Amino acid sequence: MLLTVSKRLEFSASRRLFVRDWNNAENLAALGPETSARYGTGRNYVAYFVFSGAVDPGTGMLMNISEIKERVGQVLHDGFDHKFLNEDNPAFANVPPTAENVARELFTAAAPLFKDGQAELVACHLSESNDRSATFYANGNCEGNYWFEFSAARQTMSPQLSDAENEKLFGDAASPFGHCHNYRSRLTFTSADGLLRKYEPISHCLNMLRDELDHKNLNREVAGLTNQPITTETLARYIHQRASESVAADRVRLHERPDFFAEYWGDAKFFLGLQAPFSAAHCLHREQLSPEENVALYGKCNNARGHGHLYLTEATVGGELDERSGTLMSLDILNDGIVAALEPWRNKHLDLEMAEFRGRPSTGENIVQSLWPRFDSRLDGRLIRLRLWETANNRFTLRKK
């Protein structure tokens, strides 16, 4: 199992996507229309710094997450926030500040700051807009993400099932009158050599997918889906197949609503993810420490009266796709399993009412580790990843390696 802790930080900057040795046509084809912004154009960036390591059983923490903001904040202040990256940050003097390159430079600048601790910076994820993000990893791999949206109608069903079987499996979604979703899809491309993915072929691919899927009846108007099971899983696979005819995408994520998604990876792996919130109170405290030591360790989270969060969980399951129905797992089974796992925790004071935290700090690390067996046992042992947001800025993730 791999546990990670992520801290979300924001900064604003301007940049020009431009390579001096290329002519205007080459820059446009590789970097897109923003290359014409001679004096730069802006972004409100969101960066996630992701750490991994062993949890200290005494403190319940992989690391003190407040230290991330303190240390990385100086990096952002000095080289990124409210800067024209091309001219104010030497790293981009001869390298275009694409999302991938900025993510890499953030990682490179931040990683040495944590060499003195048990936790190691393993990734930096950077979102520069709703349509574009990138992740740089400690092993040198980099992922570029491109999002696109479309609206479409569909009848969730499989022609290989009877009407009764479709209704039993898909409920109201199997109605022949159909229903609609505002879909949001992400294409991910991985590079191990730092080579830039050119704007022109990817833009062409995204436009092709929009033209084919947007404002269509998926069962009747998309030739490649005719007489196929129409589910979120099979639609994610179809998008991957169509995209890979022009650009080799590594994986596709498809949201049919903000809290539910399917993923398809190029090696025929399927995943389903669903989010669910729960409210709870807690107080971070160690009986072995003095009041002063507890405050020094946990800060305002040591409030003796407790404090609370509207936590958000995200459970991702994986496994074999049932080709006959086009499903990985029934959405009802996924939803019901998550609801059952969370129900005992809802509106509780975790330290006072939950056995898992008697003598054990209710840190995000310990919470996500305690939730894993509850989720996995109710999801047929198919849990692949469990995420927990304590706040929008603090995320804890446990996953199978």
Strand content: 25-35%
Work out the radius of gyration: 23 Å
The helix/strand class is alpha+beta
Could you give the order of strands across the largest sheet?
Answer: 1-2-4-5-6-7-9-10-11-12-14-15
Number of DSSP strand runs? 15
Q: Which spans of ≥5 residues are poorly predicted at pLDDT below 50?
A: none
Secondary-structure element pattern, one letter each: EHEHEHHEEEHEHEHHEEEHEHEHHEE
Mean pLDDT: 93
Helix count, DSSP H or I runs of 4 or more residues: 12
**What is the subunit organization of this protein?**
single chain
Give the helix level as a range of percent. Answer: 25-40%
Please give the alpha-carbon distance between the first and last residues.
5 Å
What overall form do the CA principal axes indicate? flat
- What is the makeup of the main sheet? 12 strands, antiparallel, barrel
Task: Describe the structure in brief.
The chain has helices at 24-31, 65-79, 85-88, 99-110, 163-170, 199-213, 218-221, 232-243, 291-298, 331-342, 350-353, 364-378; strands at 2-15, 41-52, 83-84, 120-129, 132-137, 142-154, 179-191, 216-217, 251-257, 260-265, 269-282, 307-319, 348-349, 383-389, 394-399.
